[in-house]
Write the structure tokens for this entry.
Amino acid sequence: EVQLVESGGGLVQPGGSLRLSCGASGFIFRSYWMTWVRQAPGKGLEWVANIKEDGSEENYVDSVKGRFTISRDNAKNSLFLQMNSLRAEDTAVYYCLRGSNYYGLWGQGTMVTVSS
Amino acid sequence: DIQMTQSPSSLSASVGDRVTISCRASQGISNCLAWFQQKPGKAPKSLIYAASSLQSGVPSRFSGSGSGTDFTLTISNLQPEDFATYYCQQCNSYPRTFGQGTKVEIK
């Protein structure tokens, strides 16, 4: 089955760190750009970051630059998002997506709550 | 950053109605635009890509049009399962940006 499954979300204190993972199956992972998008509770969608097929290019929204790092392990069909210096405004459901321009495949999302 | 503005923010419609949602980009984005549908508690689902191409498996009552700065999502013959929130998203430049969403509610 073609799918993306996120994990690693949870409750973290402001200033803390969290690493999200996304496992891919059913397609040739190394052939696709991958993307993270987030959605704060009751709010709209916000694009966070993406990474090229071979990991040689990364792009970020300004609000996470210098704090978040996207990476991938093509041998393990996995995508990651390392989140440091977390803030209350980073509280959201984080979705893993396949693609750079168009996103035909989404994961189910993992919730990240930043609170003391 | 390119700002995406959807209108209306919400609308009420009846089953069988024709519904039109607009999305305007703050600068030209060619046809690099996608539409998504999201139901409460669920991940978004892709409907349209490249402004007017229907994603595989999406019913033909959904259609998209536009180019440059003005785009439209049309749902003809609205069905009960179409009541949801719809988002547009540009892919012309970084950061990718989404519209604020349009909630389609039952009249």
In short: The interface with chain B takes residues 35, 44-47, 50, 59-62, 95, 100-104, 106-109 of chain A (CB under 8 Å).
